[in-house]
Amino acid sequence: TTHAVEHHGVVLVYKQLSADPNNHSFHIYMATNSASDIKDIGKQVRSCKKSYMKIDKPPTCKLDEGTYRLLSEPEGEIRPQDLKFTLAVTKMKGYFEAFFEQPPPFKLSLIEIDSEETVWTATIRDGDCVDHTEKKPRKRTISGRQRSSSPSEEETTCKRPRWQDESDGVKAALAQGEDMTEKQFLKVAKQLGSEWKQVAIYLGLKSRELDDIQAAEKDLNMQKLKMLVEWKSRRGPGEATASHLLESLEDLEDLPNEVYQILKDMRDNPSVK
């Protein structure tokens, strides 16, 4: 007799952030248990028009190629009803959308259709849905509305960042824009919160240099601005564009969605100042 090969997979849960306390909307992704697959999903979620927070639940499970169904207790609205999972590399990851009218807890179960086996379960409780950065997105929503005419605000579907789908030639063309100005850096700096020091580390600055910046400048926004200007000073002409900054930070999971959108606008629309 032969046995099917077992594959270790992951199920990742993201909750939509909303000012409406009665909004209980989730995206549930299936993926292989590989760093690249998980990172791709993180980028896909960050490029959505709406903002999402990751809910930490034990993700690993056995996932074979096949069709799966997501069930919930109490019953919620889940679409699509069934979702195929493949081990092949795909540009876009499919996901379940789950909507609930009542508050948590919700129990989610992933069922393999053919075998009717439950391969993953998780209970989402009220404490899991608390957005600890709630105040920051609200503050940024105002500027987001002011930029409502930009292409990024008009997107209605989630998609991967454009650099994921471009050829090397197009990447090079995008990168050859103008270096960012201090005014543009200030726009980015104002959207950075406590994660700005992580940004600095990803840009190659050392902790001692951050201490020096903080000692020399008391205003927090100016500290963040000087950090970005320092990054620019270490690069050659034409190597400190919005595209370069975006690519330098693409692996930073804590990069605020607002910063990503601003840099994406600057990269895709050179007229954005």
Automatic annotation (TrEMBL):
Annotated stretches, region: Disordered: 134-169
Composition skew (Basic and acidic residues), residue ranges: 156-169
Chief place of localization: cytoplasm
UniProt keyword list: Cytoplasm
PROSITE patterns tied to this protein: DEATH_DOMAIN, FIIND
Domain FIIND stretches: 1-138
Every Death domain range: 181-253
GO BP terms, alphabetized: mRNA export from nucleus; signal transduction
Entry-linked InterPro entries: DEATH-like_dom_sf, Death_dom, FIIND_dom, THO_THOC1
Regions crossing the membrane: none
Domain of life: Eukaryota
Subcellular location: Cytoplasm, Cytosol
Gene Ontology CC terms, in alphabetical order: cytosol; THO complex part of transcription export complex
Alphabetical list of PANTHER family matching this protein: CASPASE RECRUITMENT DOMAIN-CONTAINING PROTEIN 8, THO COMPLEX SUBUNIT 1
Official protein name in the record: Uncharacterized protein
Organism, as annotated: Nothobranchius korthausae
Classification of source organism: Eukaryota, Metazoa, Chordata, Craniata, Vertebrata
